[in-house]
Batch of 4 targets.
Target 1
Amino acid sequence: MKIPHGRPTAAALTLLSTLYAAWPAAAQQVQVGGQIRQTANRVQKGSAGPLYELRDNASRLSFRGSEDLGGGLRAQFGLEMGYAADTGEQTDPLYRHSYVALAGPWGSLALGRLDSGNPTGSPLYSQVTAIASFAANDAGATAIGTSMLNARNRTSNAIGYRSPSFGGAELMARAYLRGAGTPDEAEDDARSLDLGLLHRSDTWIAGLAVAKDDRAGGLKPNEFDAKWQAGARLSVAAIEPYVLLGQERYEATATTRRRVRFALLGAEWRLGAHTLVLNLMRRDVQASPTGARRRAQAAWMVALSKRTELQAFADTDGVDSSRSDVRVRAVGAGIKHVF
């Protein structure tokens, strides 16, 4: 069912304003924030003519709150709505995350629709963002978190856990039900489990993650059965190199792959307010036994303040080496503001 434009956002704002006013001042800690991220792009696919667009890159509006329950225990909640800043339309689904959580000396536990912005993090995607640098936004023309790394992040009907840090190491775990919520694909038709281990020090970051999927009646052709990924990043100078690689296992057919391997090699260079990012990537094409997806991107970001950043990027995506005339080339420039 399509939600009429604007109504859920207005209703959510009204509800949150009411709760904020009713919450005792001594107990309330509510934060309102978000991001607006837009670029003007030139995109060309194969031999077709170029497309010029003003593109939103995952803008959002968020509400977060917490309450000190005493004894080291804290209650937390979060609601983050996605919208397209170029058109004013809301995302489908409306909420990027919506969770309630408890945090204590034993770690954090969260329930709801979870992504890397919740207290328990995301076992796969949080590892990617800790190790690799994105070209501008990892959204729109630059997105690689989903297209190249398949690092699922935003999941519904989820339970997440994050351990305390032990000598720089922490564990993240998430279990959830998947599905479209229709009679033909009920929510309990598929289940997933993600586990991630991340270690941080002053000079390096390293991580390892695994995932397992099950579906009643068997997995779909584009659903992996199991996955692992690992990576590391060095932080010893202005230039920080990193590498991330992994493998996914699928139900193979005569025309598809059983195993899909992927790799990312990149570096970030910081010089004052300027940041340069270069990423080189390769991924097996699951739908083609011989196809490979090769991608390269470069980005330049300039911090005008702690909240405002100018961005420019160039991206070339081979899509599938077993097909002709499918390469996508994109260049763009824009502004990101965090509030």
Target 2
Amino acid sequence: MADHFSGPRILFDPASDVADVFAFPSPDRPGCLVLVLDVFPAAAPTSLFSDAITYRFRIRPVARATERAAFTVGETEYGLDFTFAAPGRIPGSDEPVQIGTCTTPSGEQVLFQVGHEAPTEAEGLRIFAGPRLDPFFIDLAGVLAADATQKLAFRPGADNVLEGMNVLSIVVEVDPEVVFGLDCGPLLGVVGETVTSGGRPVRLERMGRPEIKNVVLASKSHDPVNSDLEIRDLYNEEDAFAVRPDYAGAYRARFDANLAFFDRLDGELVWPPDDRGAHPLTELLLADFLVVDVSKPFSEDSCFEIETALLAGRPHTTCGGRAPNDDIVDTLYTLLVGGVDGPRISDGVDQATRPATHTFPYLVAPNPNPPDLMTVMTTLLAPPEPEEEAA
């Protein structure tokens, strides 16, 4: 799944578990950038944001590198930090009330109430935080079966494993010129993180592109160098804009091995390794942040378009980034298995429980009766069903 339950450690702290990150130009306010951070996968109606965690967006200017298929990252960083107080109660009500604070790059602090449907507005900002219906969709059984059988195992009309589930969402619409400054674009790299609050913050989890951890890096069985290493907890600690050299070799080995596995799923080789055995996508995906062009209008299903244009040596034509309705499982498998312009590969799940809208806060109201967490985990951990024998 996009980034839900992406590592053993994060399972014990769902409030810090980043489920999804989205970055896209606003469909109804041209010139504005929408950032979404979903946390707490399979959230219950009583779930709350943690008062011990900072929920953070990190944004940096990026540019296409001239000598290789990669992006150079600028030194200037624009951060938006969201913190939450312990819940209180309004006199005469049994419902808990939680107040949040958004801290902008200039240090301005904007207060808002969690779950309040009307957006909180400040100069250059609109803010919402609260429970929403999970916008992600995937045939997880098909993903697991492909790893087990080493061939594509998607089927038409598959079930979305996240059907009816909720998350806690932070949605902020930013006027980049007002909040970040006039020289901030047009290409921006975006990462969502959870870090401990306090004087010495520790990164708990981070996410850029979808399915890097749970699809590309998850399997250990294809990696001859680190076959006994659960690499995702280490990877979560990394700065997406500057991976530590200490573990970079381990990450590259896992990327090289697993990307080669995906290339073999249809029996054809479209990504031949270089003379050192490195996969052509490894360096691009290791720099794990969304890339969005704020000068272009909103368009759905443009996730990875800037990256594929870079790989093909052509100008990109869309805003890139990632919108909630983008069918990124299809897009990712098409790229990994079929190449830049390969035939579309579908996992058989085409939309979420209810598609996102084109108006703030974009994600739709939560399911009042979501599945419980134990049901969710039982489904996730169930072994793939064996394929039917051919008649």
Target 3
Amino acid sequence: MRITRTGGGRGRSAAVLTTSVLTASALLLTGCSSDSDSSDSSESDGKITLKVSDYGQFGYKEAGLFEKYEELHPNIKVEEETTSTEQDYYPKLLQQLNSGSGLGDVVGVEVARIKEVVDTQADKFVDLKGSIDVGQWLDWKAKQATTKDGAVIGAGTDIGPMSLCYRRDLFEKAGLPTEREEVGKAVDGGWEDYIKLGEQYKEKAPEGTFFMDSASAMFNGVVSSSEEQFYNAEGEPIYKENPTVQKAWDLAAEAADKKLSQGVPQFQDPWKAALRSGSVATVVCPAWMANQISLYSGDDFKGKWDITSAPGKTAANWGGSFLTVPKSGEHVKEATELVKWLTAPEQQAAVFKAVGIFPSNQAAYELPEVKDGKLPYFNNAPVGQLYAEEAKSIPVAVLGAKDGTIKDSVSTQINNMEQRGTDPDKAWEAATETIDKAIG
């Protein structure tokens, strides 16, 4: 399923963390370099304009980082061009890369697309290895943007350590445990336990509510905990044979058959409406998802949501992005300096504080903004500690060139099982037929 880390739109975050405030000097100076104070601008006002092209919500405006960077670099103006969904953004990016025009000075790339970009478009991007300390990143994150010859074409922004978001009030009404430690124990045995908990919920579920929002989201959560997912290390598609993928599909089919899911595609209007009306009891919850839940659930459900560990004992990552610098840009040097600054520990901590997007830069984990971070909206869940612990034990997953396409196709067919009652075997056949045509 092609679920972006932010999905269907931007917005000021309701999922603000309670932590100490960054000092101005730390925020402004880290990652700064006087080398970027170039005056070779072709702009009429004497300023260099850097266009940052991205999708969804990277959190830079919300954290005030563009304004701070402009204060630090009076000759630089930063303009962000945002596409609401990654599904719309990526095809446009490929067109721009192929035509050599229209690209931003800084370009975002989502993790499910990075392998394809590394394999087929790497020569069009600046190798950041000489400008950025790659060792600051989680090792598996850095490897995702590294070519076979060692070039690093993307600086990691965020990652998506897995957790489970749940409605305490709905659990209580259904006779289920409500404390995060107890809920964590209830699903400690894995995703099968998650299904069992859903069956228990359904027995006494408040009228008009569903245990989960989307079975395709659960599918993605299951697959994300595996080192091998849709491709093997040799770059061969193995999604049909991989037992983890089959397990994820079977669990999704079971959830659809037992009506445990509301069957609303994530980030689309029906999903937002479901959160707003309070009809969903659980959401598979990578770090960036909390912001989306709080944004669309609104003030009425503040404190009623909580966060616990994801089902099972294997850490998992779902989502995350990179910032890249196209070689064709007019201001490559300045763009590289901006990327270096935006992905430095202090700036990643500021984004986490503003919108809950979890850093991929390990040095940020020891900063109070992350280490002591809690989400008041989610009953003060200690997400900084929860996500940091999981991030360090996430396995290095094998990425494939068409991971995004595979997830899109599977998502569509799981939704057909949920909404139309499509037979699982026919749905799987339809999904694989679409995927095979797309990947060749």
Target 4
Amino acid sequence: MQPSAFRPSTRRPATRDRLSRHPATPRLPTAQPACPRLDFRSDTRTVPDARMRAAMARAEVGDDVYGDDPTVALLEQRAARMLGTEAALLTPTGTMANLLAPLAAFGPGTPPPRLIAGAGTHMAFLESAGLRRFARIELTPVAQHFDGLPDLDALAALLSAPAGRPTVVCVENTSMMHAGNALDAAATRAVAALAHRHGAHFHLDGARLANAAVALDVPPAQLAGPADSIAFSVSKGLGAPAGALLCGTSAYIAYARELRGWLGGSLHQAGVVAAPALIALRRLPDLAADHRRAAALADGLAALPGVTVMRPPRPTNMVMARLAGLSAQECAARLAGHNVRVLPLPNHHVRFVTHRAHDMIGVREAVGAVTAVAAGAGRRPTENSRTGSSP
């Protein structure tokens, strides 16, 4: 398998899904909002349903800065139990969880660590500027294989080189730029063993670890087991409006909690955020339906002339496709003309992410839109396709 050619970004700090606001992403006019059923840009496009909104309204709250918000405490306990760790910390975003993870890895008084992550991971591709600016952490990219697993020989060479400071190794599961492939526990253990052999802290960026667990039909704790820290998002396919959990030992989380306050992540009556997240934790089985819709979408797109679909070994809820004769940006713009929203990527593919707002009818409509775009790929785009207006 060939390593990825992605390189970390030097752009300004990013939020957890900065790709959703990439400058090249075509925008629909305000008079024509995207149809939720046909918005495939990200599973962050989910909105809290009636049950989540009701839970927010009746949530029992305290002040989490003082440690007495009971709903937050319950969420952190359940997340830690789900991932098999001693403790968990609610953070506003996955980006903050990933910023806290290396900062808290070696305790107070240690220099900022060296961070090694796959060149195509979210941390390397979209979070490296924030790590550098706010934590003085320089991210070192390592090549990845097609499935998203870091190249172990390349990782070993980096770990063997003198660094002069402690090291954190990060693996992302699922692997965002590798069509959402789910890495199994054996793959994670191999990286963890190598990292620990060199005295490194092993962090698992599990923004979509729930999807990986469902795809592999294993408990999340099995995938998280080898990691020293885990970031787990509840605001992707699980559908909560905000939040991520940073999980690890009690001592690690206590220090991360202190750092969270320094970074401006102090939460007061956060029970209104934790309440829908508690519902989200119970919805892991629902992700299987998202995976089925993604599989149907991949099959439909792969059958089209001129369309190439990336096929990961263990697919989840992402589909990455490339249309012959079109850049990713132009493909996304033309699909927007059919009211289908996708995300253009720098690997020349567009990304579809299925989530709870989608159904099989929407999947078929998306395939129909790609059929129309592929058929006209060699023609000059119309004014409508440039602006995103309906044809």
